[in-house]
Specification:
Layout: H1 24-33, H2 37-47, H3 53-70, H4 75-92, H5 96-109, H6 114-135
Helix pairs in contact: 1-2, 1-3, 2-3, 3-4, 4-5, 4-6, 5-6
Length: 136
């Protein structure tokens, strides 16, 4: 296949393109603030972002909000997104109390999902441990 004169050379490993070269986290923040959770999730997944603790909270809230919105239309997708929200809250943001709600939603939507049940048990244990240590 011939390329047109003046066109850039084809490279098999081109980096993913963001909206006009913008920082993916700026796009994600803007989309979450506008209530366009699905667009924020797509941006995060397309760019394979690795969130830090604060970014994980933002992304987890996007996943949870979209899971709530999709719950009746697509229960399977909603369960997977609720699971991802719980996982981000629990493992990346280290906020086990916040992980409980999305993981309960994931278990309610997919009762046979052992990974969701395991994460829910872990979140409950870690949240109880935090409260126990704070009481000492």
């Amino acid at each position: 296949m011939r390329r047109k004169a003046g066109s850039p050379p084809f490279t098999a490993r081109s980096p993913p393109r963001t909206g006009g070269g913008r920082d993916p986290w700026a796009v994600i923040r803007d989309e979450v603030a506008a209530g366009r959770w699905e667009v924020a999730i797509r941006e995060a997944e397309t760019n394979r972002v690795m969130p830090d603790r604060m970014q994980a909270v933002l992304l987890a809230n996007a996943y949870l909000s979209n899971a709530r919105a999709q719950r009746t239309a697509n229960a399977r997708l909603a369960g997977a997104q609720a699971m991802r929200a719980g996982q981000l809250f629990l493992e990346v943001a280290d906020r086990p109390e916040d992980a409980i709600e999305p993981l309960q939603l994931a278990v309610a939507l997919a009762p046979t999902d052992m990974r969701a049940q395991t994460l829910l048990a872990s979140a409950k244990t870690k949240a109880a441990d935090v409260h126990y240590r704070a009481g000492l």
